[in-house]
Amino acid sequence: MMFYRSYQSYCHRLQHDMYFLISTSRLNEQVVDKIVLQLNRVYPQILTNEEAEKFRNPKASLHTRLSDLLKHLQKKGDRHCQEFYRALQINAEQLFNDLPSRKILKTPDPTEIDTDKEQYMLNDRGPVFFLACFSVAAGLALFWYCCNSVGASSQSATAAGPGLNALELLQAASQHMGCSREWNV
Predict the structure, then answer these.
(1) For position 149, what pLDDT does the model report?
(2) What's the confidence (pLDDT) of residue 89?
(3) Looking at CB atoms within 10 Å, which of 77, 133, 159, 184 has the fewest?
(4) Sign, CA torsion 77/81/86/91
(5) What pLDDT, on the 0 to 100 scale, is given for residue 81?
(6) Neighbouring C-beta atoms of residue 34, cutoff 10 Å
(7) Which residues does 122 contact at the CB level (< 8 Å), separation at least 6?
(8) Which residues, 6+ apart, have CB-to-CB distance to 114 below 8 Å?
């Protein structure tokens, strides 16, 4: 489900990406050191100085340091994992974009409705269609108005309606246009 994929925690994502990050030395010493330093200096609440020294220790293998760092961040919580992802994006953007969890997030759910596509499907008729519909609606409204005023004037000749009946409307239009034809009202 797309809902689950787009809202899973950073700890779950890191657990999913851990093997990818550790395997085949995708991260080199320099990048791991930059990430550890960023987590320590920019976000000292994420990694203390002692923890940063432990994860930057050149005596331990890179594989061990990286796996220990990732396990440590997962134990600390979602915010810590999120800051790791932010540091990874800053220091190794291509690797960040290639993460398996990023590919899952980018994969669209076939059952989900694409609202952008649907918006274009609803609005693909253009302005001529809009004008035609508006003209039909205006014509029907005018016809309904004229029919109601003809019926009202035939029921009582003294009733002063708010508008003209159909014959009065035609007479007013022809006088305004300069026609000399007489209309029987």
Answers:
(1) 65
(2) 93
(3) 184
(4) positive
(5) 92
(6) 17
(7) none
(8) 108
Structure tokens, 173: 């239009």
Q: How many CB atoms lie within 10 A of CB 85?
A: 18
Query: Burial of 47 by CB count in 10 Å (0-12 exposed, 13-18 middle, 19+ buried)?
Result: buried
| Residues in Cβ contact with 149 at an 8 Å cutoff, skipping those fewer than 6 apart | 161, 163, 164, 165, 166
Q: Which residues of the chain have pLDDT under 70?
A: 1-7, 24-25, 105-124, 149-167, 169-170, 172-185
Give the SS3 label for residue 182.
Answer: coil
CA distance 84 to 71: 12
Residue corresponding to tokens 């980018």? 106
Q: Determine if the pTM surpasses 0.70.
A: no
Residue 22 contacts residue 63 (beta carbons within 8 Å): yes
pLDDT number for residue 169: 66
Structure tokens at 20: 């990818």
Alpha helices in the chain (DSSP H): 2-6, 10-22, 29-41, 49-55, 62-76, 78-91, 93-97, 100-106, 115-122, 126-155, 166-177
